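**Protein record**
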Amino acid sequence: MILNKYKVLFSFLFFSGGFFACNVMNCSAGHYPSEQTLPLNYPKPPFETDTTYFAMYRNRGVQVKIILPEKELKGMILLLPGWNLPDVDWSNKTSVCSKALSKNFGLVFVEMGKSVYMDSLYPSMRKDYLFYPTRTWLWDTVITPLQKYGWFTKGSHSFALGLSTGARGAVLLGLEHSECFEAVSGLSGDYNPLLDTKDGLMVNTLGAYEKNAFRWKGSNNISLRANEFKVNLFLAHGENDQIVPIAQSKDLWNRISKQAVTVKQTDYRKIKKAVSYQSTTYISKGKTYQLKLVAIKEANHDYQFWDFAGNLAIDYFNQLVVK
């Protein structure tokens, strides 16, 4: 697959304030285009090909990888992994990366480990969870420095796609930095912890609901912030998901669609695994955005589903770019 070869080529300071490059990836799928083919809004970065470097978090390096297409760069996609899942699984276990590169999207991977994409660390958080990055760190330390290349900036073709807890991360980044994303997508995401106040992951992160209800209802509860959304949003969920029930995606859909202008439902009978496709447009701050939800019959919380739904998300991103 795409991310299975590494070759150490150089070591130098990458960015001031805690970035250093450690190696460049040998990736046959793509390389950075020549300077002559670069769009004017994408300045040339300081590396000639795909690269891997480390961003500092609490005195340790967190691995970041960038893969770029062979042809002219069309846009960038941040790919976020689920809880304790390797970021390279996007490449090793799905065809999503190959499809994105074939459509000339560049990719950013971040090794988030057991992150639940909270905004900060809490006193009640299980101690080993403190070792893993927050979404605030992700934005400030990884994404913001990339903006100098025109990526993840206002008006750019920039996207975020996450699976499982990574869906929380992608959707939260779209909610909190909507001007910098054309669209975000969440696959099998959990968006409202109040739907299960005994969920072990959330209890270990937010603390017991009975003692920390304000956190369960606060900035990390995406559904309760539904009226803040100002971004195109693509959600997908398996109807047979036993890890994160589809009720999570439906809850977020229902809350955002209260602002809907029009709602259209289409039967996806021509796509074997998909049972329903809901699409609407909603208005926020005087602007109109798209909201889509794909529910897949008999699909589970696994890479077979994430491959299928992830490819649908890439198609959606591409439609927005070429429209």
Summary: The first helix runs from residue 89 to 92. The helical segments are 89-92, 96-102, 135-146, 165-176, 200-206, 209-216, 247-256, 303-322. The chain has one domain: 6-322.
